[in-house]
Amino acid sequence: MKTKIALTTAAALAALLSGCAAQPYNARGAVVPQAMYQPAEASNPYTAWALRQWSDARSVPRKLPVVRGYSPLITMVFSQGNGRRQISGVVGCNQYSGDYTVANGVVIPTTDMASTGQACNTRGLARVQAVSLERLEAEFIESMKHIVDTTLDDYSNPRLMTMRLGNGDRLEFVRQSSDYLPRM
Fold first, then answer.
1. Are 171 and 78 a contacting pair, CB within 8 Å?
2. CA nearest neighbour of 146 among 40, 63, 49, 26
3. pTM
4. For the chain, what are the domain ranges?
5. What's the CA gap between 39 and 165, in Å, rounded?
6. Tell me: the pLDDT tens digits for 43-90?
7. How far is the C-alpha of 48 from the C-alpha of 50, rounded, in Å?
8. Structural domain 25-175, CATH architecture
9. Peptide bond into 72 cis (omega under 30)
10. Fewest C-beta atoms under 10 Å: which of 43, 98, 99, 112?
11. Which residues pair with 50 in a beta bridge?
């Protein structure tokens, strides 16, 4: 009888303590979900991507500025080192970077994206192009906080990555070749 009570008490204590395990939090104070499975990206995180299309919730493509010298307009590179997973890339003329994790197949930034925030050389650009480029940079950096779903077209050899945002927008990225070096 004492053995049965001791085992029941031990099981209850173990269950209680497992619920007290520290939850990981991101820079915004939100709990980062724990991974159930990891896509191919997580086991081979050294991939480079270029934005192909940004669509709204109704699948209407967003008109992106076409600016000579800024192609691809938005890049995303996943890397890993010193125990950190990092997203970095270029948006317009600025570089950005931040840490991330992959949980339940979703790329989740765990820090706010840092951006160089430099003024782009807009000489020769129409004013509307310059404003549009600056707005795009700010909106992309902000969008990284709102990723709710990440899908790959083929987990064994992904060529297309789609990120869905909380507002329903979809960002489609095309994988770049292994020798792709983003301009930084």
1. no
2. 26
3. 0.69
4. 25-175
5. 18
6. 456 789 999 999 999 999 988 877 666 677 889 998 888 888 899 998
7. 7
8. Beta Barrel (2.40)
9. yes
10. 43
11. 75, 174
